Amino acid sequence: MWFVRFISSSIGKKIVMATTGLLLVLFLFTHAAGNATIFMSSEVFQDYANELHSHPLIVLVFSFSLLLIFLAHIVAGLYLFFENREESKSRYVVTTRVVENSFASRTMPYTGLFILLFLLVHIMGFTFSPEDVLISVTVKELLGNFFYSFFYIAAFIALFIHLSHGFWSMLQTFGVNHPRYNVFISRLTILIPLFFLLIFGGVALYFMTGLGANY
Amino acid sequence: MSSIDLTLKIWRQPNSDSLGSLETYTLNGVNTDMSFLEMLDVLNENLTKEGKDPVAFDHDCREGICGMCGAVVNGVAHGPEKEVTLCQLHMRHFSTGDVLVIEPFRSRAYPIKKDLLVDRSALDRIIQSGGYVSVNTGGTPDGNSLPISSQQAELAMDAAACIGCGACVASCPNGAAMLFTSAKISQLALLPQGQVERKQRALAMVAQMDKEGFGNCTNAKECEAVCPKGISIRNIARLNREYVKAVLSEG
Fold it and tell me: Which parts pass through the membrane (chain A) (predicted)?
């Protein structure tokens, strides 16, 4: 079948990575917008959470779609990682990377796996938090812990690094590469990850530093 | 005329089936006006006089246009200079005391024949699978009967500059042949003559590329950085578009 042939081709696998990557970035925007209410007050944040969970069907469909997208991104990514490692291990006695700033592209699988670890911790902490405690209280309790916040900030830095290659790479895979837009794209590739780092990292820092003590 | 003294560590491997290793040679009084291959010629002359087996390496035109030569020098395909093949790299870019590790282009799809000589016929098979245009014989068409915009012709020419040396594969962390394949697809997809077989070409060449065992592109950009002809990864973006368009309608 053409679709199976497409998905199993080298370019098809990259398109899977890019498409799911784009959907995950879009999800992060909605998540960041929701989290930003924390900076207003605990009441605003609690209202937002209550409103969201007053539509259980939306939450259910959204969560399952997200799970599928995540699984596709992780499975395709790990598959590519192991397939490419077959090629690259013990190849040359001397290996020199000519491209400068190749740290992000070299570490994609590792930053990705670290984000996956964060995801598991995050879901355990918040999605499956005790039902009888308000989410606005859980946030303050969990992120008030120095080490918990520290881990969160480390994960957001990993996300920043991951996206600083991933966002550009996604557009390249979609075939978007034109001298007129390349400077704009390279700026977006820093600005979008920076935006996520500021919002998500800001929330963790807010509670970690005690600024959110009266939250 | 200045000269330099070098220590060379060269990959020696008698044939495809045997295990290879690095051999160390000292080469003194290397004329800095020589090319890298001429330096290897001098080494081979010395080795022959000593009754030893000379280092096997591929070469042909020695003016940077045939795509036959190439080796990895200190981890960089075609050596440290930008946009030159190994034959056009001159010894003036090195200095006395330098240790040069010289290894063959490596990829799962490039079996080593001997020493620095590799079998790159996997690239030829990608071309055979679709990197051509079928032209029925007949009268010669009038010049300029097919209008092609200057910009389009330039882009096609940029892609056609690929000499098929295979340094892109050798430098790719994943051993992907995307830059080579994308250049060969672009040079035809950009011109009117290439339109008839455009989709079949993209499908066949990508299928052959995967079949040969080349790796998957992860946009590491190393290929573009070592390409002696400065082929841009913009061609890879074009290949991705060509392939998706082809697979959605004719795959």
Answer: 58-82, 107-126, 146-168, 188-208
